[in-house]
Amino acid sequence: MESVNPATGERLETYDDHTEEDVDRALDRASEAFGEWRDRPINERQVLLSRAAEVLRENQEEYAELMTEEMGKPIVEARAEVEKCAWVCDFYAERADEFLADEVLGSEPESRSLVSYEPLGTVLAVMPWNFPFWQVFRFAAPHLTAGNVGVLKHASNVPGCAKAIEEVFTEAGYPEDVFTTLLVGSDTIDDVIRDDRVAAVTLTGSEGAGRSVGETAGSEIKKSVLELGGSDPFVVLEDADVEAAAATGVQARTINSGQSCIAAKRFIVHEDVYDEFVEEFVAETEALSMGDPMDEDTDIGPQAREDLVEDVHEQVEGTVEAGAELRTGGERPDGEGNFYPPTVLTEVPRDAPAATEEVFGPAAAVFRVGSEEEAIEVANDIEFGLGASIWTEDLERGERLARRVEAGCVFVNELVKSDPRIPFGGVKNSGYGRELAEQGIHEFVNRKTVWVQSPEGPDDVATE
Questions:
Q1: Which residue among 115, 210, 366, 401 is buried most deeply as judged by most CB within 10 Å?
Q2: What is the rounded distance in angstroms from the CA atom of residue 440 to the CA atom of residue 96?
Q3: Which residues are catalytic?
Q4: 285-334: pLDDT as tens digits
């Protein structure tokens, strides 16, 4: 397994893959660690999580540079990602005991009933390269604190990040094997999920990977959470602040150089403001700086791999062939590195690749609609349902339409983003389950009902 700088093609480091014996030992040690970790008082687990936040902040520059080198994230965004990881640690360090406290329920006069939240065991986390620290920490912060142990199978192009994340927990003082990184290929995942020592699995990745993991977990009757792809609609209505919508829209499309599942990808614009929006949007796009991701002024870095550049370019060309207008970008630059320019496609037909597929790169597809009804129809005319954004100055209208969009999260007059305080996840082919907030920490626990009856209480209780 090796890491390669996508901006230069330079080979950074080579890592030895873990063998079957290594994986077996790791799962044994994780199971043993769970036996003690689950009984550790939650306040002690929260203290360790606070320490993990400190380790992240103390090493922010090192971790940011590692991300930038391995997958090309612009350095300013990489620093922000490390800080966001520290934030999610802070959040659960402060709130986990509240979220996991016994919930007392109403019952009979001579009895007491409650729901307790108890950890499941070893959870396999299969994570992607595009947010190599954040995706892992938004899993690990809540679920380790809930008393589970974690085994990470990270994307094969970010092994350095995978090892660094393991070191964060070690430096924070976590017991050995509470969090473990496996350097293995994707062909190992199925066997690990089926292993009796693994209780559950979470995956952030492609629809295809999600189908495979979900099928295996289902056949083993193991809990799974899937956060998959998205082709998020960004709806601009006739009463929107067009200038703000265009500026935010460009940011929403090009964050992480366009490589984000919750990036705005389909811009659905009312005909009354269509021309104005396109003019603003193209101007904002052309103002972006593409280049060395280590440069503080770079907005767009390289795509993470060469094959990803080819995929995006093929989708752009296919969309133009279907009848769309190429307004800017769309041509691969000469020189080294996996670069692809920010691209805007307008008058996109409903059956074009950019309309029906997820475009995982900095290419925006703009659609013209004649009414809010048509806007919602176009927004929902996709197999994905991760996030959505609606722009209108009428907040009641925005909330009303948000309820009609088929997505796991809808933001009005804001770009879609994950936040430790609010649940995150999708519907349709974007997956199931939720991460973050109180809902997220409850995904990998046994929500156990406990009923305690007084010996002097009634004995004529109805049973199922």
A1: 366
A2: 11
A3: 227, 261
A4: 999 999 999 999 999 999 999 999 999 999 999 999 999 999 999 999 99
